[in-house]
Amino acid sequence: MSQSNLFIDIGNSAIKWRTSDSKVFSESIENFSITLLNESNIAWVSAVAYPNIIQDMSNHFEMINVIEPQKKFGSLTLSYEDPSKLGTDRFVAMLGAIKHFPDKPLLVIDIGSAITFDVIDKNGLHQGGIIMPGISALRGSFKKFKTSDLSVGLIGLANNTDDAWRFGTHAMMVSAINYQIESFQSNFSNGVVSVCGGMAKEIKKELPESIEFFDNLVLDGLESYSQSVG
Predict the structure, then answer these.
(1) Which of 28, 97, 147, 173: disulfide with 194, CB 3.0–4.6 Å?
(2) How does residue 154 score in pLDDT terms, banded at 50, 70 and 90?
(3) Which of 1-5, 65-69, 78-82, 141-145 has the lowest mean pLDDT?
(4) Euclidean distance between the first and final Cα of the chain, in Å?
(5) Sign of dihedral through CA atoms 173, 177, 180, 186?
(6) Residue 20's pLDDT is what?
(7) pLDDT digits (tens, 9 = 90+) for 115-125
(8) Rounded Cα–Cα distance for residues 107 and 193 (Å)
């Protein structure tokens, strides 16, 4: 019987999974059920939270591999003294970017519930990274102006307080991302900026055209990981 792999990305707000035939599925954390997952012999999992879901998956599959960051894996060497302090999603996204652009300096940006930035040189040496709040956290950061409206693409000057807060938090997010891109490109002239995350395509027009966008960079990294150890 042939081996069947399933690649699963458990994020803060949603779960994505990809089958061996490259079909991708997604469901919110609230609506997810283990019965939604395709039959498979082996599951490869990146998880930022929800140990209860991981436990359910452990009972569901013949074999489950929950990925943990390693100081050195393949051509990637982490800068963190304690790799366990690095989010698994960041580790696996870096593996995905290296899979697509080997031997290139890389800036890996994940624009989701949080926004993460990681820089890797052409030799696979992780230079470090930063974390900042995503748009939901920004919009909810000031009690007086707090809103659940996550719409983006809002630019210009507002003539009411609600819009002023939405415009301002949007500008803050986009400006911070562009600043990190400019900083990376000034230090690595031949580098590649790889962007993923649920909010990435929403602000695509406000980022440099040279950026490489990926729908499923973490899933790509999981597949690369499985191929390296399999």
Answers:
(1) 97
(2) low
(3) 1-5
(4) 16
(5) negative
(6) 82
(7) 999 999 999 99
(8) 5
Q: How confident is the model at residue 1 (pLDDT cuts 50, 70, 90)?
A: very low
Contact (Cβ atoms closer than 8 angstroms) between residue 217 and residue 194: yes
Domain boundaries, the chain: 5-66, 103-215
Q: Under a CB-based contact definition with an 8 Å cutoff, are residues 96 and 111 in contact? A: no
Helix orientation angle between 88-100 and 217-229, rounded to the nearest 10 degrees: 80
Q: What is the 3-state secondary structure (H, E, C) of the chain?
A: CCCCEEEEEECCCEEEEECCCCCEEEEECCCCCHHHCCCCCEEEEEECCCHHHHHHHHHHCCEEEECCCCCEECCEECCCCCHHHCCHHHHHHHHHHHHHCCCCCEEEEEECCEEEEEEECCCCEEEEEEEEECHHHHHCCCHHHCCCCCCCCCCCCCCCHHHHHHHHHHHHHHHHHHHHHHHHHHHCCCCEEEEECCCCHHHHHHCCCCCEECCCHHHHHHHHHHHHHC
Same fold, 5-66 and 103-215: yes
Angle at 219 between CA 103 and CA 115, to 5 degrees: 80
pLDDT of residue 52: 94
pTM: 0.93
Q: Tell me the CATH number for domain 103-215.
A: 3.30.420.40
Residue 2 pLDDT exceeds 60: no
